[in-house]
Design brief:
The chain has 387 residues and is α+β, with helices and mostly antiparallel strands. Helix 3 crosses helix 4, helix 6 packs antiparallel against helix 7 and helix 7 packs antiparallel against helix 8. The relative contact order is 0.07.
């Protein structure tokens, strides 16, 4: 890529202009390199006499890539097509867009040999000679678009990338089909392996739901992939580029805390990746007040929701005692829960908690009832048990 094209975002790159000579000997194509003064793709399109009006053009121009241009000048009528190199789902893709009215892509294909070669290019990957040759001719540097992966995943990621680019996996199949779910799952695995993108827990949740319907017979190294998807290893941020932006939508989950010596019970909302936090998004200072006894989510919810699983794991280490739903129901019907709800002074957070009667409140003001879960909580906290 000529360095002159990198001084402004989304610049105009190489131009190919086809003209019909006076001797009618056939179309002649002249190749023009970017000028000394770089021009943006938007400014070039604005200068065209018959710019096409469409939302697709605006979206095309916004894509972060230089734009190669192919022009046809016939009897004073100027027809122009733009080409950008993008990487949707991590695959190299030449995207073409008509820039002028009454411009048919096939018409310019017949005139420009480079466009004809581009149309004939199928089943290629980032290292394919035909793809690299076209990049050189059109002035694209594929390394500026090619995804980069964290070192620990690079070998597997490159194999998946090659599979994603070249294997015949039914691109015309519905995204809800096995082939579609497999392609989507591979795209999300690659996204979580990248060095320039933060591996958010929400994306791992999406991946796991999609993974359940992926076709293992289509994938290379399925066993290794299955282990990664069903662990939290993809969330390890070691090897990320400096300055990588955290997830745009911070993960949020909630847990039910039951009455205990730490309060009368409440639903706590736990959000990650705000302010000072650890690599996995946990904010120890903000969550330090979460103590006591909580209801443990069921196994299915823990598997599907990565942030929920992280919150439960960190709170166990913090000393929270988790009860299964059956244990929690029995606990809320006990004198112990009623006692702590009364001591907390707040309104019981569940209709399943018994309200203390008058004589019980009088008695409990002098002696507490049996508190087996409180004793378990104290032992749990002292011994650092991860129940």
């Amino acid at each position: 890529m000529d360095p002159k094209t990198t001084t402004i975002p989304n610049p105009l790159g190489t131009r190919f202009v086809a003209t019909w000579p006076e001797d009618c000997s056939g179309w002649q194509v002249t190749r023009y390199e970017p000028g000394e003064a770089p021009v943006s793709a938007d400014a070039f399109v604005d200068s065209l006499p018959s710019r096409v009006a469409s939302s697709r053009l605006a979206s095309f121009l916004e894509q972060p890539s230089p734009m190669a241009v192919f022009e046809l000048d016939c009897d004073g009528l100027r027809k122009v097509v733009g080409v950008k190199l993008l990487a949707p789902m991590h695959n190299p893709t030449f995207v073409r867009q008509a820039l002028t009215d009454r411009t048919e892509l096939q018409e310019l294909d017949r005139v420009h040999p480079v466009l004809m070669r581009l149309s004939d290019l199928v089943s290629y990957h980032w290292g394919s000679p035909g793809f690299l040759d076209l990049c050189e001719v059109m002035g694209f540097d594929p390394q500026t678009v090619r995804p980069r992966f964290r070192a620990r995943f690079d070998d597997l990621a490159q194999e998946l990338l090659r599979w994603s680019c070249t294997v015949k996996h039914g691109t015309d199949a519905s995204w809800e089909s096995l082939q579609g779910k497999t392609r989507q799952a591979v795209a999300w695995v690659l996204e979580m392996m990248r060095a320039d993108a933060y591996p958010g827990p929400g994306r791992l949740d999406d991946l796991r739901q999609c993974w359940e319907r992926a076709d293992r017979t289509l994938l290379p190294r399925f066993g290794e992939l299955d282990r990664l998807v069903n662990s939290d290893e993809l969330l390890d941020t070691a090897g990320l580029d400096a300055g990588v932006i955290q997830p745009r939508t911070p993960p949020t989950t909630s847990l039910i805390f039951l009455p205990s010596r730490h309060g009368s019970g409440r639903e706590a909302t736990i959000t990650g990746y705000f302010g000072q936090h650890e690599p996995e998004g946990w904010m120890a200072a903000d969550c330090a007040n979460l103590r006591g006894i909580a209801t443990e989510p069921d196994r299915d919810a823990l598997w599907k929701h990565t942030w929920l699983r992280a919150a439960v794991r960190r709170l166990r280490v913090q000393g929270v005692l988790f009860l299964t739903p059956v244990e929690a129901r029995a606990y809320m019907a006990s004198n112990e829960a009623a006692y702590w709800a009364w001591r907390g002074g707040g309104r019981p957070m569940s209709r399943f908690i018994r309200r203390a009667r008058g004589w019980q409140r009088l008695l409990w003001s002098m002696w507490s009832p049996a508190l087996p879960r409180d004793c378990e909580l104290a032992a749990h906290r002292r011994a650092g048990i991860t129940r």
